[in-house]
Design brief:
Distance between the termini: 10 Å
Domain Histone deacetylase: 19-282
Strand content: 5-15%
Low-confidence stretches: none
Shape: globular
CATH superfamily: Histone deacetylase domain
Mean pLDDT: 97
Radius of gyration: 17 Å
CATH class: Alpha Beta
Protein name: Histone deacetylase domain-containing protein
Strand order of the largest sheet: 2-1-3-8-7-4-5-6
CATH topology: Arginase, Chain A
GO biological process, one term: epigenetic regulation of gene expression
Number of domains: 1
GO molecular function: histone deacetylase activity; hydrolase activity
Keywords: Hydrolase
Structural class: alpha/beta
């Protein structure tokens, strides 16, 4: 059967060409994935509701974010100038991750062509993350009784500090972050399970660390769903990472995570996470490794 995939044109908004965040990658990524359309079943998300956002974010912060009254300091910390289109975008992205998780629970595996905004905190934005889609999705599903226990596997090069803090009082939502230690954010949070990597790890060293950790963690947690942040800023060419993974290393990593989950019968919802190369075609090719790995898992009969 086709792989469920989630996208919305609103994932891309206009930003100045000089802006450091590669916003255009979401449109370019969808265009690149058109080559796989015969293997994908596309779904379009709705905006996350205010009630869903309030499961992890404070009403005062949401008033400012949704109403356009974030002060200049808050906008600088977010990394974006405020606009109605930006608010629409982050609500669609969050709705996309929630829909991806719901599709994963139904079909076993599903992917979002955006998502992974793991630096957003309860009352402030940070590091290009305004709403924490992973935490909103986790708490929404747990509150609705869709799952009793879930695991967030965050392999972005940066620690998922916002996710860790937002879910610290949610024992049914277990957070795992494997990230480069000497990197943003300077002040780390405490995930349920953290691995702070040395800078400069290559494919084999990185994957060896993951292999020594992930299976045992999954078997210990016994989640009913895994939310997987497949950030590609661990790539050797990324501007903001300090790892040395190759395209093949990304494919091996994503395939390993998917197959480790699905071989245990655990549904997995994947989001693409961070990636900051100015070469958008190269960057989107890296993000596409997640989709290629998922299709590969299907062909191997484990999805």
């Amino acid at each position: 059967m086709p792989l469920p995939a989630v996208h919305h044109p609103g994932y891309t908004i206009d930003l100045p060409s000089t802006h450091p965040f590669p916003m255009a990658k979401f449109r370019r990524f969808r265009d690149q994935l058109a080559a796989l359309d015969q293997h994908l079943q596309w779904h379009r998300p709705s905006k996350a509701t205010r009630a869903q956002l309030e499961t992890v974010h404070t009403p005062a912060y949401l008033d400012d974010l949704l109403g356009g009254t974030l002060d200049r300091a808050a906008q600088r910390r977010s990394g974006f100038p405020w606009s109605p289109a930006l608010v629409e975008r982050v609500r669609l992205e969050t709705g996309g991750t929630l829909l991806t998780a719901q599709l994963a629970l139904e079909y076993g595996l599903a992917l979002n062509s955006a998502g992974g905004t793991h630096h957003a905190h309860a009352d402030f934005a940070s590091g290009y993350c305004l709403i924490n889609d992973l935490a909103v999705t986790a708490v929404t599903l747990l509150t609705a009784g869709a799952v009793q226990r879930l695991l967030i596997v965050d392999l972005d090069v940066h620690q998922g500090d916002g996710t860790a803090r937002l879910l610290a009082q949610q024992p049914a939502a277990v957070t795992f972050s494997m990230h480069v230690a000497r990197n943003f954010p300077a002040r780390k949070a405490s995930s349920d399970w953290d691995i702070g990597l040395d800078s400069g790890l290559d494919d084999d060293a990185y994957l060896d660390t993951l292999d020594r950790t992930l299976p045992g963690l999954i078997d210990q947690v016994m989640p009913e769903l895994i939310l997987y942040d497949a950030g590609v800023d661990v790539h050797k060419a990324d501007r903001l990472g300090h790892c040395e993974l190759t395209d093949q290393g990304l494919l091996r990593r994503d395939g390993y995570v998917i197959e480790t989950a699905r071989s245990r019968g655990i549904p997995l919802a994947g989001v693409i996470g961070g990636g900051y190369d100015r070469d958008l075609d190269a960057l989107c090719h890296r993000h596409a490794q997640l989709f290629m790995a998922a299709l590969g898992a299907q062909s191997h009969g484990v999805a």
